[in-house]
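Cast an eye over this sequence plus tokens and explain the fold to me:
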Amino acid sequence: MLAAGGLVGLVLLWFLVVAPLASLEASWSQELRKQQLLLARYQALQKEKTAVGKAVQEVKRGLAQAEGQLLGGGNPAVASADLQEILKNLTRALGVQVTSTKVLPPQESGTYLEIPVEVQLACSIDQLVGMLQRLEKHQKLLMVTQLEVNAPRRRRVMPGSAAAPEAQPLRATLVVAGLMKKGAGA
């Protein structure tokens, strides 16, 4: 009978002490696995945050560099004067004659304003090509939004005449535009 009482005691010990402790250990193990997975997820997010932060800094550097190509000035009138000065320097360097300059109204282009200036030139084809190349390669972001070229009519040379026809300059009208940030100085 003592053996039966010892067996009952062992069964009671099992159900009252060992089984609950084993169940508690299993739940702690499961909770520990969940916490480890959560930690791994947070560590992955931390690495992504670092990578995203570096990417954001790279984009900001690129934007700052691109905005360095915008026209200066706190308002469209100053930016237009900046663009006119650029055009004056380019035409002077190429020996191009400017016959007229007209400031056109600024146009919205997203977060930027497009500042256009129309110039009429008297030049040779080589000078015009040189002007277009210099506009394309200028440190400021400049766009030729409109180009119209009028070539003069050639005069016929009379047979037997030794005089060569005088080369007349082309008449070119360009609309050159630069960008400025809206509210840049406001």
The mean pLDDT is 86. The chain is about 55% helix and 25% strand.
